[in-house]
Amino acid sequence: MTQEITATDLDGASVARRGRAKDHTQFSFFDADDMGELSDIMAAPDYPVSIIEQFDLTPLAVGHATKLLFCHEGDEGMSLALVSFAPDFILVRHSHDADCLYYVLSGEARLGNRVVGAGSGFYVPAGHTYGYRAGPEGVEILEIRSSTSFGMTVVEENPARWQEMVDLAVERQAEWAAFSADAGS
Fold first, then answer.
1. From 79's CA, which of 37, 65, 69, 181 has a CA 20 to 30 Å away?
2. pLDDT for 46-92, tens place per residue?
3. Which strand (E) or helix (H) includes residue 110?
């Protein structure tokens, strides 16, 4: 059965967040929710206690935006998110408890000495650690998961790396704040 779900069928948040598991479902960026507001999809990250005690992480709250484009109802199914990072934003080393396939739409992600540009992607199995830095124009990435909810555990404990991230965020605060506002709309 094919069915289009529209705002007249469900409230706007439900359209973007949850699709019917057995029906054909359409979704739109314009109806998508900010994933940071959806605690049932991705739990708040777990940070190393030593880092929380040492650093003010507030400056890292800008420079990124995540829109949940699609997510099946229930505990099993698929989810799709569009993640945008400002130029040179550093995504700290972390892991998720769900597999994820990443596809770069624009810009580039720098994973160590590897550069993953538009039209390319990478796969990270559950429990594997990774992190990356957005390229000089930023990066837009589709995150495709075979899970409707997942957690994030931050594993970076190097104080020098955290200092670099916080200093960069403070330096680029105005630019990144404008980026976050634009990427979220």
1. 181
2. 888 889 899 999 998 899 988 888 887 777 788 899 999 999 999 99
3. strand 100-111
